[in-house]
Amino acid sequence: MNRFIQTIRNIFSIEDLRIRILNTLGFLVIFRLGSYVVLPGVNPAAINNDNAQSGFLGIVNTFSGGAFSNVSIFALGIMPYITASIVLQLLTFAVPYFQKLSKEGESGRKKINQYTRILTIAICAFQSIGYIAAYVKPEMMLPGMDSPFYYAARTIILVSGTMFCMWLGEKITDKGIGNGISMLIMVGIISRLPHALFIEGYTKGMKGALPFIIELIALFFIVVMVVAITQAVRKIPVQYAKQVVGNKVYGGQRQYIPLKLIAAGVMPIIFAQSIMVLPPMIASFYGESSDLAASIGTAFADFTSWQYNVLLSVMIILFTFFYTALSVNPKNISDDMKRNNGFIPGVKPGDQTSEYIDNVLSKITFPGALFLALIAILPALASLAGITREFAYFYGGTSLLITVGVVLDTLQQIESYLLMRHYEGMMKSGRIKGRSQVTAIAS
User: Fold this and answer.
1) Are 264 and 324 in contact (CB under 8 A)?
2) Nearest to 78 by CA among 154, 150, 170
3) What is the pLDDT of residues 65-115, one digit of tens each?
């Protein structure tokens, strides 16, 4: 306990770090307050929150911290920006023009960021129209507030709200601590936890106190497991040849290529869950005329059904291999090693090195994909075990992975400040390492 208190004192004794933490807290408070500001013309008493508690809408609502179900000015949150970032990242692998931009350094990165913002506005405008048409029902409107003018005003406000959230994220990155976009996602997720705990505790009652404690202990060990697996790496030794320049000798040291067990991060789960909304949507068009379509729609609309979880698991495994292939290029790693006179002991430089790295990556990706599939279906298993749906969401899926990744990244940045000022790190032994995939996507 004394060490913990001393660490907190060290953190706030560094003026720059103290200001950044306070700035971060201030921006996050603004973000949370905005999630309760209802769109103009909407009657707060008529809002039905039950329509956005499951499926893909439940994911969006979780990421926005409940702003989606609150019909808030931040209803779409930063999801359009995340979508645009993913699209641009995929384009950098598939389109030569964007590949060239990604290799131009700072100027290329600025252009890609500009394209991302433009695409964010387009996606947000499209989603705003769909959100108002599908979710903001006429019975939610105040009298006289259902004219086309107010519909257009609400669309503009939703787009502005998303752009403001994006601006908050950038300010947290520049003036605060950690990656701003990732921080907004995490705060949106964590903000649902107190309500979920209250619902779970209220449902269990005094007679269910022991099962409730067991649930909390199980959640703790799941978090520990997620931290261990997400930080797990396969180190490939690399030896650099010695170079004599004048009277000095360079190189000759041994380093490692850290290949993460889950190089794809949380993206396979996001992709898979986004697609899982399609089967019930398609089945709804034929539900009245086909009993088979109705049964399919019912099965895939329930996230606890075995059909839903089997298909979700298969898609996550496939997307893990796909996204890992996009994220990690063994050929580029091999070429970089060759240019720097590096080699893997026992492996010839060039194509054999590339094949060796690809083989190792394939071997570690499969268990990583299985782990992601397990994490994705844990909320369903928790719900079937009697845990309320609100609390079950925290037992796995994107919520848990993103929260763990962002917390680790933030702690890593705080620790770097402490080490620069010659303080001890945040842990007695070892260092907080790794960068979460969601952080890398959002930056």
Assistant:
1) yes
2) 170
3) 778 888 889 888 888 888 888 888 888 877 888 888 877 777 888 888 899
Q: 402 Cβ partners below 8 Å, 6+ apart?
A: 182, 185, 186, 189, 266, 436, 438
Cβ 35 vs Cβ 128: under 8 Å: no
Enumerate residues 6+ apart whose C-beta is below 8 A from 325.
none
Q: Which residue ranges of the chain lie beneath pLDDT 70?
A: 1, 48-59, 242-253, 281, 284-290, 293, 422-443
Question: Which backbone phi and psi does 250 adopt, to 5 degrees?
Answer: -110, 155
Question: Amino acid identity, residue 66?
Answer: G
Backbone torsions φ then ψ of 421, nearest 5 degrees: -95, 15
- The dihedral of CA 436, 439, 441, 443: what is its sign? negative
Token match 């063994």: residue? 330
Q: Cα-flanking dihedrals φ and ψ of residue 233, to 5°?
A: -135, 155
- Dist CA 324 CA 398 (whole Å): 17
**Chain centroid to CA 425: how far?**
26
Helices (H), 135-245: 148-175, 180-190, 193-204, 209-231
State the Cα–Cα distance between residues 119 and 183, nearest whole angstrom: 22
Which among 132, 127, 151, 129 has a CA at the least distance from the CA of 77? 127
Closest by CA to 11, choosing from 424, 407, 405, is 424
Query: Domains in the chain, ordered, with CATH?
Result: 1-176 (1.10.3370.10), 182-443 (1.10.3370.10)
**In this structure, what token pair is assigned to residue 106?**
């700072």
- What does the block give as tokens for 123? 């996606």
- Cα 62 from Cα 398, distance rounded (Å): 10
DSSP letter (8 states) at residue 45: G
The alpha carbon of 88 is separated from its chain's Cα centroid by a whole number of angstroms, namely 16
Query: What's the pTM?
Result: 0.79
Residue type, 262: I
Give the amino acid at 303. Answer: F
Beta carbons within 8 Å of 101's beta carbon, 6+ residues apart:
92, 108, 109, 111, 112
Quote the tokens at residue 229.
């697996």
